[in-house]
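Backbone-to-sequence.
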């Protein structure tokens, strides 16, 4: 009959230490994955707000409705969901008014940041975001590239950088990616 060998205290300690390290590494990776997913949906929501800004404006054009503090709170809360419910925003005129005003305010803050930075590329990024998403007449990537005498790829990079900054303005510290 085979004799059972007991694990030495040193082996048990080593197994425990290794197991704890593996668990700790796994938890850290899961935490990073969740933070990335959270950041990703906030970037998507920022892009959606910009992409649909003109349709929001046309939806509320001429609206005379009063926006209550509750309407404002509801609209802001919808920003912090995994999926920005564009259809529900469009259905609620008051929420749409709040969103339009909020985007206008954040674009104004972004403009001020770009103007005071002293960096030419910051001003260009603001102009590109404004012309692509905010102004009455939408300009294409090609038109903006030609106007600024840059490559279309630079326009896309400028949009990406501007959306990252706007995401921080819209979502605060939750819009920042920590390395």
């Amino acid at each position: 009959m085979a004799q059972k060998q007991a694990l030495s205290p040193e082996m048990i300690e080593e197994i425990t230490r290794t197991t704890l390290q593996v668990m700790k590494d796994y938890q850290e990776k899961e935490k990073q994955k969740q933070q990335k997913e959270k950041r990703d949906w906030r970037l998507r929501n920022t892009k959606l707000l910009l992409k649909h800004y003109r349709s929001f404006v046309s939806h509320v054009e001429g609206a005379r409705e009063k926006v209550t503090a509750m309407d404002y709170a509801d609209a802001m809360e919808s920003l912090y969901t995994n999926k920005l419910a564009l259809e529900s925003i469009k259905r609620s005129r008051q929420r749409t008014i709040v969103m339009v005003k909020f985007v206008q305010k954040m674009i104004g803050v972004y403009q001020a940041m770009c103007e005071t930075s002293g960096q030419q590329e910051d001003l260009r990024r603001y102009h590109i975001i404004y012309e692509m998403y905010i102004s009455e007449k939408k300009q294409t990537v090609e038109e903006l590239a030609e106007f600024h005498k840059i490559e279309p790829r630079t326009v896309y990079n400028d949009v990406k950088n501007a959306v990252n900054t706007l995401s921080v303005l819209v979502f605060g510290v939750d819009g920042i990616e920590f390395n």
